User: What shape does this take?
Amino acid sequence: MKKHKILAAASSGGHLIQLLRLAPLFQLCDTMIVTNDYSDQFENMFSANFFITDVNQNSSKLAILYCSFQALIIILKSKPDIVISTGALPGLITLIVAKVLFRKKTVWIDSIANAEEISKSGKLAKRFSDIWLTQWKHLTTEDGPEYLGSII
Amino acid sequence: MIFVTVGTQLPFDRLIRFIDDWAFKNPNINIFAQIGESDFVPTNLEYKKHLSMNEFNSLFESSEFIVSHAGMGTIISALLAQKPIVIIARDSDLGEHRNQHQKATLNRFTGVDGCITCKDEVELDYAMKSRKNFKAGAANSKNVEFSNKLATRLNIK
Assistant: This one.
C-alpha cells in the first residue's frame, strides 16, 4: 500500500493542466482529485475523483459557502495527508478547510500565469500553506513564496 | 483541422467574427470553434459554446494548429501537446476582459517556439496566410524535476 494520501485540487483549464503535470509525484502516492471537470485520464492517475462547484471572487457569498461545504465533505470522505492546489478559488477553499479544520499538510503552487505578482488566491493561501510556491524565481522573497522550478 | 478556442468565461466576438469571415474565404479548410459566451453566431464553421475536457483534448489532438485568446490554459496545452498556437489577446479597452493581463501574456509568449502572437486582426490575417510555416515547440520535462523536488520536501520516496 502507498504510504501517503494526496488530495489534488484545481479548477478546469490552466490550473488543472498544471496540476496534472505533477503526475510523477502523484504516482508515488495514493492520489485523489477534486475539480469541476472530468477527463478519462483521471482513471489512470487517481484513486478517486470528487466534484466541486467552480466559484471565483465575483461569486455570491452563498455560492462560496456552498463550495466550502463541498470541500468539507470531500476532505471527510478522502481523508488525505496532504492537500496540493494550483488554484483557483475552489482549490484555495479546499486547502484552507484542510488546514484550519483538519491540520493537514498543505501545498500551494501559484499558477505560471501569475508572472507579475502572486494571484489573489495565492496571497490568501500563504498563511494556510506549509509549502508556498511560485513558478517564477523573480517573485521569491525572504518571507516566501519559494521557488522549486516550474511545472511547465 | 484548425481548432479555435476563446475560453469559457467571456465572449470574444472580435476573434469569432474574424474566423467566420476567414472560413467564408477559405471554404476548403475545416475549422471547429469553441465560442464560449460570444454573442456573435458564426455561420461558416462548426462550433460549440462549451467543451468537456475530453472533447477539448480530442479536438486539440486532431488539429493542425490552434487559434486562441491569450488564455494560459490553452497556451500551456498547446506547448505541452507541441501544437503551434496563434494567439490574439483580449483587449479590455474593447470590453473583452476586466483588465489587460492577456496583453501581458501575449508579450510573454512572443518569440517562444510554437507561439505565433498577433497584436490585432491584421497580424492575425498575416499569420493565417503563413500557416504552412508554423513550427511546434520542443517537448518539456520540467515537471519531472519539479515533482522530485516537491516529493523530497514532503518526505515522499
Strands of chain B lie at 2-5, 31-34, 46-48, 65-69, 85-88, 115-118.
